[in-house]
Design brief:
The protein is an alpha/beta fold and 430 residues long. It has twelve helices and 18 strands. The chain has three domains: 2-111, Methylthiotransferase, N-terminal domain (Rossmann fold); 134-363, tm_1862 like domain (pyruvate-formate lyase- activating enzyme), CATH 3.80.30.20; 369-429, Nucleic acid-binding proteins (OB fold (Dihydrolipoamide Acetyltransferase, E2P)). 32% of the residues lie in helices and 21% in strands. The strands form five sheets. The chain has a five-stranded parallel beta sheet with strand order 2-1-3-4-5, sandwiched between helices. It has a five-stranded mixed beta barrel with strand order 14-15-16-18-17. Strands 6-9-10 form a three-stranded parallel beta sheet, sandwiched between helices. The longest helix is centred in the C-terminal third of the chain and has 25 residues, at 340-364. The radius of gyration is 22 Å and the shape is globular.
Length: 430
Amino acid sequence: MINIGLISLGCSKNTVDSEAILALFDNENFKIVNKLDECDCIIVNTCGFILDAKKEAIEAIFEVLTYKRAKIVVCGCLVERYLEELKKEIPEVALWISFKDYPRFATLVSSLFDISNSSDFDIFNRVLSTKPYTAFLKISEGCSNFCGFCAIPYIRGRFHSFDFDSLINEAKHFAKNGVKELVIVSQDTGRYGFDLKDKNINLLTLLKELVKIDGIEFIRLLYLYPEEVSDELIDFINNSPKMTHYFDIPIQHISNKILKSMNRRDTKESIIQLFDKIKSKVKDPIFRTTIIVGYPGETDEDIEELKDFINQYHFNHLGVFTYSKEEGTYGAKLPNQIDEDLKNKRKEDIMQTQASISYIENKNMIGKKFKAIITDILQNNEYYVRCGYNAPDEIDGNIILKANKNHKEGDIINIEITHAFVYDLFAKEA
């Protein structure tokens, strides 16, 4: 019996890949373990999206190499981008696996131990690493937008939707096994279905089937491009009891000059129109976005315009990244690259602006009621809970519930927000 462990880095989409990798070794020859010092094999599924992610991945590889008992296998986006360089620089790694070799993943790893294993990599066959009541549903792979800052199309390839029936069957399987919270993920969620033969299939038709599944209590969408959020989608989210009123819409910037250079298809005017529309149609919407500062050619005036927008259109959750110059992208070829110190100063400035906004918006949450799920047991009848306010990716703040009775993880309860802090909320049972 070979003890095998896996470290998954990066986004929730990579988490889904990691779960499919684990399923390859859920058999009589392997045992999946959580303690690295017990492993005969450690798989590191890397991210290679931006500089910080690449640094984290390299650090993780060197860390697992200290476990001398284990053979180290590395896969994921970093490997796809830098396979030959990595082989030369870190020869201690036993096996590097690029995406083209994923169909042979089980065979390649098993051969390190002279074991036969011909299991096929299948994104719909997974060992869930999330809590048993939560699952990510990855609905597509790749991206065709070629934003000026993003290397994803070069790493993951062009956008392609996963099979509609397979997604529905996977969600039904999750529900049958106790999953109550379904989180829809993709690099370009709103584009689902555009490349399928059946032109009647799109994100909305997928959601209409998912909400019919018994046992699923919450459905959340992550990563929507602004121009793909239709009136019909907004209305469906507002009117369906299972859909959280959570709008994760990365805008990246608000200056039309920068948006155009980033090859974004939206404009400041269209972004404002969208958020105004959502606010007019949806009861108590929660907004999350991401911003990139320090993109080539960005000026102090662009930053002031961005700050003015953020102050006017309050986001409940806002993440700020400094621009990372990624080889092969349009942005990397541009003149007027921004100094790292200035990037970090602009990031800090935006984050300070957002901290004040977050506190204001959190105070506005006091008195509001939500259906929620118990996610962790603390002490003295205190629990972490999740609802339409926060996503399960450790980016948003926490909600701490002071309950009047005992609960277990996965319980569905009604809560009322009672106190607010800059990023966290307190609640009681409603």
